[in-house]
Every structure is written in structure tokens, then in C-alpha cells.
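README, section 4: Worked example with a bound small molecule

Sections 1 through 3 covered apo chains. Here we extend the same pipeline to holo records, where the ligand is supplied as SMILES alongside the sequence. The molecule in this example is NDP. Nothing else about the input changes; the structure line simply encodes the ligand pose together with the chain.
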Amino acid sequence: MSAELIDGKAVAAEIDARAAEAAAGLAKSLGRVPCLAVVLIGDDPASDVYVRNKGLRTQAAGMRSIEIRKPADTSEADVLEIVAGLNADDGVDGILVQMPLPDHIDANRVIGAIHPDKDVDGLTEASAGRLVLGKPGLRPCTPSGCVLLAERAMGDVSGKSVVVIGRSILVGKPTALLFLEKNATVTIAHSRTKDLPALVRTADIVVPAVGRPEMVRGDWVKPGACVLDVGINRIPAPERGEGKTRLVGDAAFDEIVKHAGWITPVPGGIGPMTIAMLLRNTVIAAALRHSVELPDGF
Ligand SMILES: NC(=O)C1=CN([C@@H]2O[C@H](COP(=O)(O)OP(=O)(O)OC[C@H]3O[C@@H](n4cnc5c(N)ncnc54)[C@H](OP(=O)(O)O)[C@@H]3O)[C@@H](O)[C@H]2O)C=CC1
Ligand SMILES: Nc1nc(=O)c2c([nH]1)NC[C@@H]1CN(c3ccc(C(=O)N[C@@H](CCC(=O)O)C(=O)O)cc3)C=[N+]21
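The generated complex, written as C-alpha cells:
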């Protein structure tokens, strides 16, 4: 039996539409539309694509998008000043500083400078603390997208065993915490984990978030399991012509699709969901900061 494809792009479009509706409602109360500011330091071509997509989707949802692009040799002090300016600007509701930052900039210091009320990436100590403590707050986008797609596909994930591969602050750790919050039984694997294939074989839900093309093989995945592939890797694709590339995830899609229960494709899976959750967080941040009610169930 072949796995059901989870169409992240379609679910993301639904969430975008709801965010657009809520944004239009907010605009009536605020006298302006919600606004997301994205800061990109350096000219990494992959980051460039993501930042452009974020800008386009923000505008398509009827929100304002600010993009601040600076060269890779921008000083840490200048980045901190940019963040301070966005914190102080009452017209800005959400701030996202694209990771990774150049080596000479301390990412923790930059994240720490973002006002928690505008932390639509969910990365500040305040947001992370609220997540750990189970208090309401802005949740990281990729992890929220993973949980939402898992629930759409499988229904309640309570009691399911989840193996998250990767423990980054941006993806792995918060994904584990969000599934735990949903009463799943969660294991976090990383580069020191022993016998990863055997561990993954125990999982009802597998979340590869490593950055290694097609690392999770077909025989690692239990028949009927759900694979939420976070990895986004650009690899050479000579079959498409000289110098061409294509995107693959951290899961070997062709091997897994034969027997898994569900799988998210790359592209078209978790990536578009990340942006949808970012738009949703921007609407939530705008509403909270101005004490405006959002539609029920938003
Ligand atoms: N779809 C989307 O929207 C998003 C996709 N991504 C993609 O997800 C991937 C992960 O991103 P991110 O979390 O930021 O990456 P990081 O590089 O910050 O973290 C990678 C994690 O993978 C672990 N790891 C490395 N090698 C192995 C291994 N051989 N076996 C098991 N674990 C290993 C590392 O372990 P250790 O801690 O021990 O070093 C680390 O915890 C990337 O491909 C990135 O492009 C990222 C964000 C959003
Ligand atoms: N502070 C911060 N927050 C992030 O959330 C963050 C970040 N830094 N740094 C980089 C990663 C990566 N990331 C993606 C978002 C969308 C797609 C996306 O939309 N992908 C499309 C395809 C895009 C393409 O074609 O290249 C898809 O998978 O279908 C991918 C990756 C967010 N990240």
C-alpha cells in the first residue's frame, strides 16, 4: 500500500486565507494592516528564496511586508540597532531575523534583542520559556506546522510515539515540546544517538530535521508510520541538465512512500506550512499587542 501524501501547500493556503481574513478584521480596529519585518544579513541564495516567498505570501494575505537586507559584513552592533528600530516602530507587529547569521554575529544576542511581543519566530527566551512551561505564547513556525499536519492526517496524536531527529533551537527541540504538549511520547535523536535506524523503526511519527539529503531510508520507517520531512536540501540534478539542482528532504521519499501511512513531500510539505504559521503568528502578535479579539478558534 502506498502512503498518503500530505499536501502542505494546500493546508498552508487554507491557513493563509484565514490569516488574510483576520488581518482584514484587524485592519478595521488598528487603522492599518498587520506588518511583518524580515531581516536578512548576507546573500545566501537559499535564504534569499525563503525571504522572497515570505514577502510575497505576506502581501498576498493583505499584510504589509518589510524586508531589510544587509551585506554579510554588517556589524553585530548594526544588526542590534536594526532590531531596536523595529521594536520601537509601532507599525511593526512581527520581527523575523533569518538564521543562520554570519559567524561574527552572536545569534543569541540578536534573538535576545527582539521584543518578545513581536517574536513571531518563537525563538526568544520568553517564548521558549512559555513553551516549556505550557503557557500560551508565540510558538515556533516549523514545529507548529508539523503538529498541525500530523493532526490533520492522523487525528489525535495522544499516546503516539514520536521520534524527532535533530535538536536545534529553531526546529528539533520545539517540535519535541509541541508533540509532548499534545500528549505524544517523544524521543529526541541527534548526532550522538546510537542505532538511529532501530529507534526510528519504533516511531508512529518521524520528524527528520537534520539537513542531510535522504538520510532516513525506507527500511527505517515502520509500515503505516507518518513522516514529516522538515529537511530542505538542494542537490545536483544532472538528469535535468548540466548544472541543474533539485530540492530533497531528509527522508528518502521514493523508498518510504511505498509502505508509510503518510509522508510530506519536499517541496510542498513542511516548507509552505512554516510560512503559513508565520503569517498566523504575525496576526496573533498584532492582536495581542493591541488587545484586539481574534475570530473564535483562530
Ligand atoms: N521546512 C522548513 O520550513 C524548514 C526547514 N529547515 C531545514 O531543516 C533542516 C534542519 O534545520 P536546523 O534544525 O536549523 O539544523 P541544525 O543544523 O541547527 O541542526 C541539525 C540537527 O541535526 C542533528 N544531526 C546532525 N547529523 C546527524 C546525524 N547523522 N544523525 C542524527 N542527527 C544528526 C544535529 O545533532 P547535534 O545537535 O548532535 O549536532 C542537530 O541537532 C535543514 O535541512 C534546514 O534547511 C529548517 C527550518 C525550517
Ligand atoms: N529565523 C528563522 N526562521 C525560520 O523559520 C527559518 C530561518 N530562520 N532560516 C531558514 C529556515 C528555512 N525556512 C524555510 C521556510 C520556507 C520554506 C519553503 O517555503 N519551502 C518551499 C520551497 C522553496 C523553494 O522552492 O526553494 C517548499 O518546501 O515547498 C523553506 C524553508 C525557514 N527558516
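What to look for in the output: The chain has a mean pLDDT of 97. The chain has two domains: 31-116, 141-269.

Section 5 describes how to batch many such records.
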